[in-house]
Specification:
Length: 634
């Protein structure tokens, strides 16, 4: 019995998200590909160009087919045949590099595959030198969809397509509208990439629609770095008004009138279509092993996982940066702290006794790394974050062990692993069994798992991160800045000095003192304290008849002194107290804190030497210059 055989797995498309593929006049280029197909008896494969020196031109036979098919319109509109052919050959289908054409035709509208007629020539052959080589179009069934729209009124649609390619001829606006609607539907499956800070955002048109409908505000699709791949061509197409529902200008997408009212229903249809388009055929071995980077059900995995170490002075805002620039969803985060006693077994997991059915058994109990690796692997649509606080306070290379090898990430898309996946796999039966259910599976960090470490540059007597370890991380310094600081202008207790001015004065003094070891790293961070540590001051005398509450009030009032003065005495100026303190009067930290707390108003700063006290009260900027003159001690 004659029956179909098992489907052969198709090779996954290279999304070319990182290629600089510019294609101006997108509508004209697509229009010509449709026109050539209609004029050449609807072939599967069309050799549309031949060599002409360093460039390409239309073959004589195809030129004749086009002239014959369009003869009636050319006669009516007095279009010279030579002018028609010249216009065709000036089209981007003949002028652009093949890689840009591939992005447009194969990845966005999926109308055809674009190939060199010489199949030994590689896709990058036209990147340099300016030469153009003969190409062919291998059409898809999407061209049949276009044909089903235009076949009942070919002459009107021919006029529209001719106007698209640059022939000055009147066309029917309704025909153009229908063609654009059809092309837009064909592009709904296309994926685009923009960079948000250091994170790659992969999105489709539906993501734009939803954001516009949710916020009714312009949507930025340019990102923080130069647009590449399909996104460059999408921006060209939107600039030409090819999407019936949205407009584009200067990097921003907005709703287009009058069709904006129709977008809500269209977006829901697009959403349903995309849900029904997720079926993916891969061979059983790949499904089990997950070698293509997707999850066990074949769902596409987002990309962009990376390794970042945030460093800066204590309190510079490293944790704030993680929450506001990376992730604030605790369900997507595993947070841990390295310290001298932290070990590989704490990080990865270890064999421990557990009670199962009243019997003691020994089994692998996963650590935070393995737990989050499993979560990320099983949820390919979301990015997960392993936050390692104080990464240099533990022996990081020893804690990572062989997992150290996984920190090398894929940086360019390929057929096997998405960007952000571990470039090399390791053998670890315990992790493999826990994550993949297969002890022989090679362990890799998936593309949707990022590792973020933090460390204070002022830490002394901690482990050094060697070069081999550091080079596998993006090192990002968090500036010690008061920009957008929420309590910079709040005054310290009952004084007239703001937290920002106090920090500037102290930090300027720290930087000025050359005898302070690693002075830059000893500065007070903008978030060294909490807002509540600054006050308001509680009147302790009013609580004399309530001793317990009076004690609590005293402790609350003392937080600033206990935290800030103690740091300056015990750490920043540990060996040089007289550089900033009134050391003749205050010989111990205890007397220093007592002196600060026993005074009122600006007299509290009498614990510092005269020069620093003046700088604190008068106020200095980050460069140490006076910003106003107020020598009051009240």
């Amino acid at each position: 019995m004659n029956r179909p055989e098992n489907i052969e797995p198709y090779k996954e498309l290279d999304l070319k998200l990182g290629i600089k593929s510019s294609l101006p006049h997108v509508k004209s280029t697509l229009g010509l590909s449709i026109l050539l197909w209609e004029c050449s008896s609807h072939p599967h494969e069309l050799i549309y160009s031949v060599s002409n020196g360093d460039s390409i031109c239309i073959p004589d036979e195809l030129a004749q087919w086009v002239s014959d098919e369009l003869s009636e319109i050319c006669s009516e509109e007095q279009i010279d045949t030579d002018h028609l052919i010249s216009t065709i050959e000036s089209n981007q289908l003949y002028k652009s590099q093949i890689e840009a054409l591939m992005v447009a035709f194969e990845l966005i509208w999926k109308i055809a595959k674009v190939e060199f007629t010489d199949d030994t020539r590689i896709a990058s052959a036209e990147r340099t030198g300016g030469n153009r080589y003969p190409k062919k179009l291998k059409y898809t069934t999407n061209i049949d969809i276009i044909h089903s729209i235009i076949e009942n009124d070919l002459q009107s649609y021919y006029r529209t397509l001719l106007s698209w390619i640059g022939i000055n001829i009147p066309s029917d606006p309704e025909c153009e509208h229908r063609l654009l609607l059809a092309l837009n539907v064909l592009a709904e499956n296309a994926l685009f990439n923009l960079v948000d800070n250091d994170t790659n955002i992969i999105f489709n048109l539906n993501c734009i629609y939803k954001k516009l409908l949710e916020t009714n505000e312009a949507v930025d699709i340019s990102g923080d770095k130069e647009s590449k791949g399909p996104l460059r061509i999408l921006k060209s197409a939107l600039s030409e008004g090819m999407n019936p529902y949205i407009s584009y200008s200067n990097g921003n997408v907005t709703l287009k009138t009058p069709n904006s009212e129709l977008l809500e229903d269209y977006q829901k249809r697009a959403e349903t279509y995309l849900q029904l388009s997720t079926t993916k055929f891969i061979d059983l071995k790949s499904l089990i092993k997950g070698d293509n980077g997707d999850d066990k059900n074949g769902n596409s995995r987002i990309i962009g996982g990376t390794n970042v170490i945030l460093y800066g002075v204590p309190g510079s805002g490293k944790s704030w940066t993680i929450e506001h620039e990376y992730c604030s969803d605790e369900s997507k985060i595993e947070r841990l702290v390295f310290h001298p006693d932290y070990m590989y077994s704490d990080f990865i997991g270890q064999i421990l006794p557990v009670i199962i059915d009243d019997k003691v058994r020994y089994q692998f109990v996963p650590g935070p790394f393995t737990k989050l690796l499993k979560k990320a692997y099983n949820d390919p649509k979301n990015m997960y974050y392993l936050i390692i606080e104080e990464i240099n306070r533990g022996n990081a290379p020893a804690i990572f062990g062989e997992v150290f090898q996984l920190l090398d990430r894929v940086t360019d898309s390929n057929d096997k692993y998405p960007i952000g996946t571990s470039e090399y796999g390791i053998t670890n039966a315990n992790i493999a069994e826990e994550v993949y259910g297969d002890t022989e599976h090679k362990v890799r960090i998936p593309s949707n798992l990022s590792l973020i470490g933090t460390m204070n540059t002022s830490d002394q007597n901690v482990f050094t991160l060697d070069t081999a370890f550091q080079r596998r991380w993006i090192m990002r310094m968090i500036p010690n800045s008061f920009k957008n600081h929420s309590f910079a202008q709040k005054k310290i207790l009952d004084t007239t000095v703001t937290w920002e001015n106090f920090c500037h004065a102290i930090n300027n003094e720290i930087l000025r003192m050359s005898n302070v070891t690693s002075s830059e790293d000893k500065r007070l961070g903008a978030y060294f304290i909490n807002e509540s540590d600054l006050g308001p001051l509680i009147d302790e005398s009013a609580l004399a008849d309530k001793p317990e509450e009076q004690i609590k009030a005293h402790h609350k009032n003392s937080i600033f002194a206990e935290k800030v003065l103690k740091y300056l005495w015990d750490d920043a100026f540990k060996f040089n107290h007289n550089d900033i303190f009134n050391s003749k009067k205050y010989k111990s930290l205890e007397s220093l804190i007592d002196g600060f707390m026993s005074e009122k108003g600006n007299k509290r700063f009498n614990v510092f030497n005269d020069n620093l006290k003046k700088a604190i009260i008068n106020g200095v900027n980050e460069e140490g210059d006076d910003v106003h003159d107020n020598d009051s001690n009240e």
